[in-house]
Amino acid sequence: MSEVKDLSNSVIFPIGDVFESNNFNGTVHLKMLTGKPCPIGNVTFEPGCRNNWHKHPGGQILLVTGGKGYYQEWGKPAKKLHAGDVVNIPADVKHWHGAAKDSWFVHLAVEADASKGSTEWLEPVSDEEYERANSN
Amino acid sequence: MSEVKDLSNSVIFPIGDVFESNNFNGTVHLKMLTGKPCPIGNVTFEPGCRNNWHKHPGGQILLVTGGKGYYQEWGKPAKKLHAGDVVNIPADVKHWHGAAKDSWFVHLAVEADASKGSTEWLEPVSDEEYERANSN
Question: Does the interface ipTM go beyond 0.85?
Answer without folding.
Answer: yes
